[in-house]
Amino acid sequence: MAAILLMEDETDQSLLFSTAMENMGHDVACATTGMEALELLKLRHFDLLVTDIFVRQDGKLINDGGLALISRVRNQMINGEHAHLRDLPVLVISGGIQMPGQANLFRISSSVGANAALGKPVEFDHLEAVIDALLKGEPVPAPPSPR
């Protein structure tokens, strides 16, 4: 069993993913913003961070999403008592992994330190395989072929 921190601003998505990961046998804590996630990371040990890219408040995108969170974890929390976060595996799950007319968000995510990314909707068998690989430090399996 791993301790997983999920940062997802949409309640239905948070419930969906946290329930799926709990059914896989993991202990899941949830945050709705990057700042809330950072506070949780300071308070307890996590084996994996799963984060969405985009965060909305009052229907508007804010700058406290997954990219900012990953950047803070990798760059600002590498000193002293939080140095272990430098090696925390990070999985991005987003509906905007590849949006028409925009840069590939996985490339952007990986440039700030994400280890893997999945686009929504997620196949839960694949999510489980990706989580297992990240926790073991193994290569992340390719997504299943479209049917």
TrEMBL record:
The modification 4-aspartylphosphate is found at D52. Residues 3-135 form the Response regulatory domain. It comes from the Bacteria. Coiled coil: none annotated. InterPro entries: Bact_response_regulator (IPR050595), CheY-like_superfamily (IPR011006), Sig_transdc_resp-reg_receiver (IPR001789). It holds the Pfam family Response_reg. The keyword Phosphoprotein applies. Keywords: Phosphoprotein. The keyword Phosphoprotein applies. GO terms for biological process: phosphorelay signal transduction system. This is Response regulator receiver domain-containing protein. It comes from Litoreibacter ponti.
